[in-house]
Amino acid sequence: MFAKKYGEALFKYKLHIAASLILLNTILIGLAYSQTTEWYGVIETKNSHQISFSTQYKNQLKTSKTFTNTVDDDVRHENESDFYVYNLQKTGNNSFLALNPEMKVKVLDQNVYALDERCSLIFRGSSKMTISNVGFECLN
User: Fold this and answer.
1) Is residue 81 located within the same domain as residue 105?
2) Among candidates 135, 128, 123, which has minimal Cα distance to 96?
3) DSSP label at residue 27
4) Residue 125: which residues within 8 A CB-CB, separation 6 or more?
5) What is the pLDDT of residue 49?
6) CB–CB of 121/112 below 8 Å?
């Protein structure tokens, strides 16, 4: 009789522990997701379209970019899509180095200029700020 009551109490205790761990994991996943920011952007010029989507979690940046060339309003299906994963290092007020030795582009020098609370211009490289090296992204 004692063993039966002990077994039932142990089962209830294990059940409470398992439920508590599941709840804790759910809370931790929710907190991690809430610390992630998503950015999206589109830049259109006479000859091209650029679409980007980025996800930032702490100092890690995952970026997907698609480029489409257009000529004389006739869309050529010359799409180029890339997916990048970088670790960010701050180098100045609005400057970052994006690093990943395994990618074809190993280091990106990025300058970020906030336009408002939601949107920013991002210039790649240390060259002049031109339409060919700009990104425009807003919080999702």
Assistant:
1) yes
2) 123
3) H
4) 108, 109, 133
5) 78
6) yes
